[in-house]
Amino acid sequence: MWMLHQFPLCPFSRKVRLLMGEKGIGYELVRTDPWDAGDDFWAANPAGRVPVLEDRERRIALCDSRAICEYLEETVDKSPLINGTAANRAEIRRLVALFDETLFGDVTMPLLHERMKKRLVLREPPDSRVLREAMKLAHAHLDYLDWLVDNRSWLAGSQMSVADLAAAAHISVADYLGGIDWKGHDSTRGWYYAFKSRPSFRALLAERMDGIRPPEQYADLDG
Fold first, then answer.
1. Which of 38, 55, 128, 211 has its CA 20 to 30 Å from the CA of residue 80?
2. Would you say the C-alpha torsion 101, 75, 198, 55 has a positive or negative sign?
3. H helix intervals, 24-127
């Protein structure tokens, strides 16, 4: 049985959970806060980051969400999510990198730092200037997602892919932390609400981070 080390608001763990849900892969969740992890976790991933996917019986420990997703894509035939031609697969990987690096750096990471880490770990008040800038940058990313949704069936092309999972994972964390203003972004909002209605998303919507409550509309499926 796979064990997935994660914490509820880790977007990279969420991406892996969505992929495993879409592929029907069973796993056990292990709550691991990187800022309070033990020696066993650091031994599994010297970078000290989640997610880490382990199968102790087979002595497999996988780190980094992109590496984990690629491994599962190569070893589980059901519901391919890095699909299509070589050009299609390159576009999927480009978008995953864009979301995991730029969207994370501009929006998800500052929201997590200001509204989660400062509250739970550092015991400091959030910086309103940083929050305003993150929400401003979120609009620019949503503008690009609007274009993708308006011009393609799914974000990377004609089929759902791990690019959709990556974007949804980051947006879901930002939405949980109150960092998404959907005004003027009806296209992305429609795609996201349809996506979070999928069975693979249900566990994410039900999970809560200790001491941090999401906005009322976070788990709303009606759009």
1. 55
2. negative
3. 39-44, 65-75, 86-97, 109-112
